């Protein structure tokens, strides 16, 4: 079993508007209780100062729980708080530059919505791809057209790096994205908007691990 792959199995992305009024640390702690392997700090509206405060708090929490912390969009913030890595999309810092700044050890995730973007991200030094949106999502206004699981299958046959499915992933479709070739999932609403965050995370984790490793 690939331990690195397992550490990327279940990404929970923070979202201040979809968390039903619960604060970010509470949500993250509950997700970690349920077995999230990665917390991705994603806060598009915070000032840099606030983002740093959130990142520092999540750094302490994830370290205590043995989970990874990945910072969305902001390489500078990831470095400043000694996060495990950063995630960039197609409108962010180019992946090759992000890799230069992060160095060889930190994790670089790159969003890919088609085969070309994926191939470029691999060449630029991505450690994993965020693949999607797989299904329709209300959580990201500019997510683009759903790609369906076919993109995952195509990428799985071309690339060996971890493929993290994102966009509309929930308890009902997790099995099919893993079967299509995803090695993990990244979710917002399925966890942060769940009444019981820990239970929702636990259920998703069970499916991912059962499909990948048979337990
Ligand atoms: N990137 C592509 S889709 C998406 C992001 C950040 C939103 C995922 O949110 P949800 O609620 O899991 O569909
Ligand atoms: Mg981005």
The major β-sheet equals:
8 strands, parallel, barrel
Which molecules other than protein and nucleic acid are bound?
4-methyl-5-hydroxyethylthiazole phosphate, magnesium ion
Spans of at least 5 consecutive residues whose pLDDT stays below 50 are none
Shape: globular
Indicate the mean pLDDT.
Answer: 97
Strand percentage, roughly? 15-25%
**Number of alpha- plus pi-helical segments:** 10
Rg, Å, rounded: 16 Å
Number of strands: 8
The assigned structural class equals alpha/beta
Proportion of residues in helical segments: 40-55%
Order of helices and strands: HEHEHEHEHEHEHEHEHH
Kindly report how far apart the N and C termini lie.
12 Å
Strand line-up of the largest beta sheet: 1-2-3-4-5-6-7-8
Cofactor: Mg(2+)
Binding site for Mg(2+): 73, 92
Pathway: Cofactor biosynthesis; thiamine diphosphate biosynthesis; thiamine phosphate from 4-amino-2-methyl-5-diphosphomethylpyrimidine and 4-methyl-5-(2-phosphoethyl)-thiazole: step 1/1
Binding site for 2-[(2R,5Z)-2-carboxy-4-methylthiazol-5(2H)-ylidene]ethyl phosphate: 137-139, 168, 188-189
Overall description:
- The chain is of the alpha/beta class and 215 residues long.
- 44% of the residues lie in helices and 16% in strands.
- It is built from ten helices and eight strands.
- The chain has an eight-stranded parallel β-barrel with strand order 1-2-3-4-5-6-7-8, surrounded by seven helices.
- The mean pLDDT is 97.
- Bound molecules: 4-methyl-5-hydroxyethylthiazole phosphate (TZP) and magnesium ion.
């Amino acid at each position: 079993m690939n331990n690195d792959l397992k550490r990327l199995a279940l990404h929970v992305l923070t979202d201040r508007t979809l968390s039903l009024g619960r604060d970010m640390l509470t949500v993250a702690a509950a997700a970690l209780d349920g077995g999230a392997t990665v917390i991705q700090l994603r806060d598009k509206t915070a000032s840099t100062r606030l983002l740093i405060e959130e990142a520092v708090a999540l750094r302490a929490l994830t370290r205590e729980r043995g989970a990874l912390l990945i910072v969305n969009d902001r390489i500078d913030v990831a470095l400043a708080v000694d996060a495990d890595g950063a995630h960039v999309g197609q409108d962010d810092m180019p992946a090759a530059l992000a890799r230069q700044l992060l160095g060889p050890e930190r994790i670089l995730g790159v969003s890919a919505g088609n085969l070309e973007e994926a191939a470029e991200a691999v060449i630029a030094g991505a450690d994993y791809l965020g693949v999607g949106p797989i299904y329709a999502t209300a959580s990201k206004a500019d997510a683009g057209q759903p790609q369906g699981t076919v993109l995952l299958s195509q990428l799985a046959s071309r690339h060996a790096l971890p493929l993290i499915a994102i966009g509309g992933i929930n308890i009902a479709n997790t099995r099919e994205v893993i079967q299509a070739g995803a090695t993990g999932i990244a979710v917002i609403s399925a966890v942060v908007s769940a009444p019981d965050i820990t239970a929702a995370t636990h259920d998703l984790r069970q499916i991912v691990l059962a499909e990948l490793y048979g337990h």
